[in-house]
Amino acid sequence: MSQPLNVSADPYAYNLSLLQEAVRIARLSGCSTLLFPSDAFNSTIPQEALDGFACIVMGDKQVEPSSPAVHYVSLDVHNHLGVTPLKTALLLAYIRGYIRYDEKVFCLNRTQGGQRLNLMVAMNVQQAVHPILTTPHILPASVLPETFERALTITTELAHEGREGKAIGTMLILGDAKSFEPYIRPLVLNPFLGHAPAECSLLNSALDETIKEYAQLDGGFIIDGNGVVVNAGVWIQAPCSIQPPSGFGTRHAAAMAFSQAVDCIIITLSSSNRQISLFRNGQMLSLSPFSNT
Fold it and tell me: What is the rounded distance in angstroms from the CA atom of residue 24 to the CA atom of residue 13?
């Protein structure tokens, strides 16, 4: 029999009580993994509360107990409310190998500001990532998972923040940069030319503001799979054309066609609705549009 929730004023006590109830429901739902934001608990979760479940934690705050069954995905938990951000978390966890394609994950999150969790949902990994899983691996072999995570994190920050008070659109093309050369057209002089690779690495957080500044240029970024930003302000010319879904413009059409012709993964940000989309093998996976409120 389930226990009544602890509705005390302490949000951490409430969330721990909710977690215990979630474990019970998750087991009945056929789930073996839990997903929740890292700041939902005050550092420590009693081992018995997890009751043998593996955990995926959204965010960088470390949650005890530390064990091989507790994994972290880089996601800004403060700006991700509701169901739709959970799809991003599942995508990152799948790329990292933390969950299987045929697995069901029991997810907890918030639907509004504050500390208390108030959302529980069981999600199928297959349904979350299927639109772009047309090959055994979502990422090209040349792209490191950490490169993709950093690129997605920076794009998400741009979606929230914009630049100079305005929403912007951009495109990040990840893969073997040399294979892109026949299909790219620089729109401006290459701002990354002549710099050491370490200075141009997306994995170096000191580069974040530079990326965000150049995101205002027309075109997009070419990023090698190891994280080195090779060029910015380039346009891609795919050797084929694809009609994008209604409501999408030339950036999305180019990304869809290029991802079908070349082994790459592309992240786009729409300036009109702050929508982030992923393109792989000519397929598109839309992530949640973000507001700046």
Answer: 17
End-to-end CA gap in the chain: 41
Residue in this structure with the two tokens 């799948």, named with its chain if needed? 94
Please state, in angstroms and as integers, the Cα–Cα distance from residue 162 to each residue in 25, 50, 243, 271, 278, following that order. Answer: 39, 39, 28, 9, 19
> In this structure, are residues 119 and 109 in contact, taking their beta carbons and an 8 Å threshold?
yes
Q: With beta carbons less than 8 A apart as the criterion, state whether 29 and 35 touch.
A: no
Q: Which of 84, 86, 119 is nearest to 104 (CA)?
A: 86
Contacting residues for 58 by C-beta, under 8 A, at least 6 apart: 35, 36, 37, 38, 72, 73, 75, 77, 80, 85, 89
Domain assignments of the chain as residue spans, ordered by start: 11-131, 145-286
Q: What is the CATH number that goes with domain 11-131? A: 3.40.1380.20
Distance CA 186, CA 113 (A): 43
Task: Read off the pLDDT of residues 132-177 as tens digits, 9 standing for 90 and up.
Answer: 665 567 899 999 999 999 999 899 889 888 888 888 999 999 999 9
| Fold category of 145-286 in CATH | YojJ-like (1 (3.40.1700)
Single pTM value for the model? 0.84
Place of tokens 């300036």: 271
The enclosing H or E element of 209 equals: helix 208-214
DSSP symbols for 19-53:
HHHHHHHHHHTT--EEEEEGGGSSSB--HHHHTT-
SS3 assignment, position 212: helix
